[in-house]
Write a structure and sequence with these properties.
It contains 15 helices and no strands. It is mainly alpha-helical. The chain is 56% helix and 0% strand. It folds into two domains: 260 residues, no CATH class; 54 residues. It is globular, with a radius of gyration of 22 Å.
Length: 355
Amino acid sequence: MDSGDGEAMEVPSAPRLPPVGGWPRAIVLRVLALLLAGLGLYQSKDGLGAVVVLFILVVPFERLFPRHAHQKFRRPHLSLDIGYAFVSPLLQTIGLIAAVFVGVLSFAWVPGLLLRPLIQSIPEPYLLIVGVALFDLAGYWTHRWYHEVPQLWRFHAVHHSPEHMDWASGFRAHPFDGTLIAPAFFFLLAAGFSPEFSGTIAIVQIVLGLFLHANVRLRLRPLHRLIMTPEFHHWHHSSEKDAIWSNYSTFLPLWDMIFGTYYMPKDKRPTVYGVDEVMPMTMVEQLRYPLVGISNPLRWLRHPFRSLKAMFKGLRGILGMMKRSAFRPRHEPFERAVLRVQKPLEFAPEKNQPL
């Protein structure tokens, strides 16, 4: 900063403020996070191994070829994301139980059974291509609904909450967000693909996702419409209005191009990330965040029929939003798309009517 007479003035550091809720609460949350990390590392060292591998393979490229040169290695909330990596084995166990439940209830296996005779008639050399395409198609719609249906978005919002994209940001995810892959996995199993093949694709998707978050200025323009690139996924994480609700595919941008959610402008690059809602920045609070407002499970014991009725009413509302999401017009502006999907009674039917 210049003082006006040519002399540079030192910018004072920001004051250190007490954490939200006070220090006692902050200490308790930190201790709980450390306990979770300890349990995760005790269960498996895979999370620690993933941190080491990504640090060795990705961080040097981030330092040499950064997408955002101003972003420091020790950026805000780096410890939170590394903590998620350490806890990931424990969270994945919890998520696996939920994934089986969601995979069965998603009914994604129904179209898989219908397609099974056709799949079995495909020659062996082409099965790999067909399997990846079908997995990506099922994953596309699941991912899209996790963004466009509020009840599902609350789980996925944790993954989108980092305001800095780098080698560690991909670890941040709610365990129930892992159910995102379950419908696609069950779809492939029902269609006749082996569990090994389906599981390998799911693992590749997870590992690839970690690399695509990196703070590396790889544009790979010739590949934009062929396969998923870091540029494609960075736009998916961008909080710019034109980029919201876009780029849902896992491997092939083809599905975004077909269903009108492809967004890859030529004249700019993504710079702003995060979510528009207030997201707590501690692990324990983030794990609790999607569950706030959900009724006490013991209510089922006291009022089973009333609870069952409320559950079916909620599922009906979710299915309605999924249907409206599937049939909303291609390339519809974000504000109108939100009204069409989430608040149809407030939606203006006239094409040119302002919001």
